Inverse folding.
């Protein structure tokens, strides 16, 4: 889930509440490393209640590690699948982790210094997972297994037959399953962890919150998919299901590259679905009690809504620039989020 000045400092090596009285070699993982791989999520981490920052931050870094392995350029699908599986097995048994030479090969292919550092820290991240509370460790292992399986399916679906042209998801159910595996499951993980660590966490029962959290996560992922559609199509990937394309008279995803205006009704349909999921996110936030957690949830929710407005105003396949909420707007939403920490009014 992807989310600025005044509320985030990327130069700091610690997050308030994660630092210890004595020097802590792990602090940099939760500070400068986390900030460098995702400034937006670093912002979310900073405002979370103290008890939840470390387990959520660790889970995020591990998920970003698997994402880096899956997306490493210049390596075959089979090499990336093998590394993902070794990483997944290593989460439970560190002896199964990829060796130094194998990791170095991936580090050579990654262009971002932050991701090179992330791969370098893989053994330490797994060590921290082993030291986590039993409940946090079990929940983290469960969500990472779902995410890694989703990444494997993504590689097999789109790159299993490299050089065969454009590929697309078949059905709306396939897209829903993908959104669950890479983001919806994170909503459930977040909910379980907060329910366990935060007294009087929500006004609704756990099962209801889990369902709302899954929907919230899927909505945020759908927004990413819609926003990134131009890049994905250029790379031969179409997450817009063939079932939906054909329902709107589009025979194949290649047509979208030649006549992008034809995608407008398809985007309208999936934007409406994303809004429905974000409505679940609104109900989720309304039920949450701790103000810091409400703020942390409000930011991606509000930025997601604004992104959908921008996507409607400027269809992504017809625009020369990538849709992005401005920093000025993010600052405004942060101020609204401070109010949302104590009142449901900004959500309405």
């Amino acid at each position: 889930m992807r989310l600025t000045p005044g509320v985030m400092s990327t130069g700091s090596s610690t997050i308030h509440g994660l630092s210890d009285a004595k020097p802590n070699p792990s602090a940099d993982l939760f500070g400068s490393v986390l900030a460098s791989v995702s400034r937006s999520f670093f912002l979310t981490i900073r405002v979370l209640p103290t008890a939840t920052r470390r387990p959520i931050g660790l889970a995020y870094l591990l998920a970003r590690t698997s994402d880096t392995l899956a997306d490493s350029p210049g390596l075959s699908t089979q090499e990336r699948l093998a590394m993902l599986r070794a990483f997944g097995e290593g989460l439970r048994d560190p002896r199964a982790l990829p060796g130094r030479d194998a990791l170095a090969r991936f580090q050579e292919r990654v262009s971002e210094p932050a991701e090179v550092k992330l791969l370098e820290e893989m053994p330490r991240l797994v060590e921290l997972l082993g030291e986590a509370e039993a409940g946090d460790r079990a929940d983290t292992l469960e969500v990472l297994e779902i995410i890694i399986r989703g990444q494997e399916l993504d590689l097999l679906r789109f790159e299993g037959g490299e050089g065969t042209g454009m590929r697309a998801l078949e059905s709306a159910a396939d897209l829903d399953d993908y959104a669950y595996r890479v983001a919806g499951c994170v909503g459930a993980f977040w909910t379980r962890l907060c329910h366990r660590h935060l007294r009087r966490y929500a006004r609704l029962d756990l099962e209801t919150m889990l369902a709302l959290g899954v929907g919230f996560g899927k909505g945020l992922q759908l927004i990413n998919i819609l926003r990134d559609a131009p890049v994905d199509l250029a790379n031969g990937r179409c997450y817009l299901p063939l079932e939906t394309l054909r329902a709107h008279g589009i025979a194949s995803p290649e047509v979208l590259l030649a006549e992008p205006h034809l995608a407008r009704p398809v985007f309208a349909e999936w934007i409406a679905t994303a809004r429905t999921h974000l409505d679940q996110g609104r109900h989720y936030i309304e039920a949450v009690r701790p103000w810091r957690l409400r703020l942390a949830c409000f930011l991606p929710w509000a930025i997601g809504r604004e992104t959908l407005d921008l996507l409607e105003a400027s269809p992504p396949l017809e625009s020369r620039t990538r849709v992005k909420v401005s920093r000025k707007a993010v600052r405004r939403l942060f101020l609204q989020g401070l109010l949302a920490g104590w009142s449901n009014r900004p959500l309405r």
The two ends are 22 Å apart (CA to CA).
